[in-house]
Amino acid sequence: MNVVRALAVAGIVASLVLVAPQTGAFTSATADRSVSASVTDDESAYLGIQQSPVSVAGNRSQEAVLLTVTNRLPRPLDLSVHITEHNPNSGPTVARANGSARLGAGGESTVTAAVTCGNSTGSETATVTLDASGDGVSMTANRSVAVDCV
């Protein structure tokens, strides 16, 4: 009978161990994770931006290329362009560089503006804002472009 009793006690102890709540579990944990992002030059970025020198001679107005934009993503991008001048009363004026375009994968487009020198000489800096968006991606870039009247 002692053997039966010992087996019964062992069975009860084993059942209690299996049914007892786990005490080694946890509900939350914290860990440090590092994140790094590489920044690249405009010439090799997903949205490639190449600035063009702008120079207008004398008392003239001309259409000038400010930037060339290249889509280096494998999907199309919708591009929106806005321009502002820092001080439009002290030199050349830059206008009509606002608009939008759709750039296919690998596509390229130029940002042009009407530059008017009038009777002025000197420089003006125009800020061009590019907003690009596509399937799962969006980016914004601001570029300052110097416009010279010579």
Structure described in brief:
Helix content is 12%, strand content 47%.
CATH architecture of the domain at 46-149: Sandwich
Fourth-tier CATH superfamily name of the domain at 46-149: Immunoglobulins
Tell me the helix content.
10-25%
Cα shape: rod-shaped
- Supply the number of helical segments: 1
Enumerate the spans where pLDDT stays under 50 for 5 or more consecutive residues.
Answer: none
Describe the model:
By secondary structure, the chain is mainly beta. It has a domain at 46-149: Immunoglobulin-like (Sandwich). It is built from one helix and nine strands. Strands 2-9-8-4-6 form a five-stranded mixed sheet, with no helix packed on it. Strands 1-3-7-5 form a four-stranded antiparallel sheet, with no helix packed on it. The termini are far apart.
Write the layout of secondary structure elements.
Layout (H helix, E strand, L loop, with lengths): L1 H18 L27 E5 L2 E3 L4 E11 L5 E9 L7 E3 L3 E5 L4 E9 L5 E13 L2 E13 L1
Parallel strand pairs: 2-9
Antiparallel strand pairs: 1-3, 3-7, 4-6, 4-8, 5-7, 8-9
